[in-house]
Amino acid sequence: MPYKKNRLSTKSKKLINRELILQSAKKVFSEIGFENCTIRDIVRESGLSPGTFYNNFKDKETIFKLLTENLMHEVRVKTGEVKKRSKTAHSFIKEAYKAYLEVFTKDPYLLKVVERNQVMFRTSVLEGNQLRGLLYELESSLKWAVKKKLIPPVDVELVSLSMAGAGFEMLAKLSRSSNLNVEKLAEFLATLFLGGINKLSKNTSLR
Questions:
Q1: Which of 65, 84, 114, 178 has the highest CB neighbour count under 10 A?
Q2: Residue 193 CB partners (closer than 8 Å, separation 6+)
Q3: What three-state secondary structure class fits 149?
Q4: Which of the two residues, 201 and 9, has the higher pLDDT score?
């Protein structure tokens, strides 16, 4: 039994070290930038040894991609919760955008990570699995809204891509302009898209 306890303790320590490296890397990426920082910078910030770093991660790119995937997973969870409690199309779109933006604004380092690492952030999001999942869920939500006659029949794939793209660009803008209000941004995006969607007819198609 003592051996089992020791194994659990070792596993817990590994998880703690892994999280410490992730948080340290996030701080370094926000202050120095992905391209300019080295693994040594991350190790120094964490207070751990280089060996501990390599026991957990292959390189800094692996860390950046994991941070991005974790964030997008959180976005999916938050927007999924919004869908369950929304009664109208407007409330769903607005609150989903708000939840998405708040994932990044709650942490003082995250917006700086986005601002300093635009190319790497975009690449990581586009190549990750979480974005595909998010788009699938958004399409499903729009199909549900069409079925419930909350919005007119539209090409849900094109609308989903447009909504995701607008959200992405608004996040980039927010990272450069900290004085922007998240609530107002979400309202703006909801009004913009719902107004456009309501003007579309089932005959509107680009295919």
A1: 114
A2: 93, 159, 162, 163, 166
A3: coil
A4: 9
What pLDDT shows up at residue 6? 55
Say yes or no: domain 1-57 is CATH 3.40.50.10170.
Answer: no
Q: What one-character DSSP code corresponds to residue 151?
A: S
User: 């770093």: which residue's tokens?
Assistant: 53
- Report how far residue 7's alpha carbon sits from residue 159's, in angstroms, rounded to the nearest whole number: 50
169/180 Cα distance (integer angstroms): 14
Half-sphere exposure of 72 (CA within 13 A, CB side): 25
Query: Is the Cα torsion angle 105, 107, 109, 110 positive or negative in sign?
Result: negative
Task: Give the pTM.
Answer: 0.86
Burial letters for 159-185: b for 16+ Cβ neighbours within 10 Å, e otherwise?
bbeebbeebbebbbebbeeeeeebeeb
Parse the chain into domains and list their residue ranges. Answer: 1-57, 60-207
pLDDT for 111-161, tens place per residue? 999 999 999 999 999 998 999 999 999 999 999 888 888 888 889 999 999
List, as own/partner pairs, every contact residues 43-47 make where C-beta atoms lie below 8 angstroms and the sequence separation is at least 24, other chains included.
46/20, 46/21, 47/20
Cα gap 117→30, rounded to integer Å:
8
